[in-house]
Hints:
2 copies of one chain form a homodimer.
Chain A: H1 6-54, H2 58-69, H3 76-83, H4 87-99, E1 103-107, E2 115-119, H5 121-141, H6 147-167
Helix pairs in contact in A: 1-5, 2-5, 3-4
The first copy, chain A, binds a DNA duplex through residues 57, 59, 75-77, 80, 85-93, 111-115.
Amino acid sequence: MSTQPSNQHRDDQNIDLETRLTEDHHAALKLWLRMLSCTVMVESEIRNRLRSEFEITLPRFDLMAQLERHPDGLRMGELSKRMMVTGGNVTGITDQLEQEGLVERVIEAKDRRAYSVKLTNAGHKAFARMAQVHEAWVAELFSGLNAEQKNAMVDLLSKLKNSLTTDVS
Amino acid sequence: MSTQPSNQHRDDQNIDLETRLTEDHHAALKLWLRMLSCTVMVESEIRNRLRSEFEITLPRFDLMAQLERHPDGLRMGELSKRMMVTGGNVTGITDQLEQEGLVERVIEAKDRRAYSVKLTNAGHKAFARMAQVHEAWVAELFSGLNAEQKNAMVDLLSKLKNSLTTDVS
DNA sequence: TATTGTTATACTCTATAACTATA
DNA sequence: TATAGTTATAGAGTATAACAATA
């Protein structure tokens, strides 16, 4: 093996490199396709249940969840960032929730261009009720993994998320 | 501890059970939220790149990917199942791809109600070009995980997917 | 001038239900 | 009658760009 001319040797190395690269590409693709299909399955199940049980859509639920975590309210721009959606959409979703009395816009004293969006009392109550059921659904859908496996996956996803937010942006 | 009356003891067990249940629910929710946000980040990045580089949408790309894997063609109903989308949508997406000459409907001799949808030669070429770049993007986006971690995650997702398709349907 | 948020518009995907043609 | 696929419709979410009000 080591008796081959260095040219050939270099070729071998290149071939190995290529092979490894291709294998890695395939592994990444396989991972992505599996992740996507799992996410789509869980997401559409939850979407359907939210609609049939509570007549609410996922983005609306998501906006309320964001506000639940921030009792002091969030600005439109902050909601936009957190929901990974452009401003116009947040306006639309907020409008709907405001009409239903679940959310309110409070003018900020310091910057009168900006609003602070908060859950109303009714919004808090409605969300608490939904969140509990929602959490049980999620637990049910992920019951195929035991505690250890769930933790392992959270760790892997955290690593991935970290690399995504560090590199890409 | 073991000197407590059995009533109290039973209470303790219940509390433990509840605690464990709540912990599990939280773990599942945490996992789901992390998985969702990772998927959304990767998906929107790929969606944007596909649009700006190739002027194609994700569902259209997905349909072509399905056909690439099945050179003999797929019926509309099969595409619908695989893409997890209703029939009307498949008709629409197929129409567009057919207009662009990337896909063709071939009437089935045996059952003249049904079509077999196939990639055209142009479709094959176009897809091959896109798939190569797409795979490189995915590899790049998942480069935060090493080979071992990717494999571990594929395994966990396979387990999850399996439990989802077994239990839920 | 820059920023916050809204409005107007258009596009894609989606589901549902009524429909046509064939089995 | 049942099935394969299409059509028509309506709705949600999305992005973009022009706009108003405030900083």
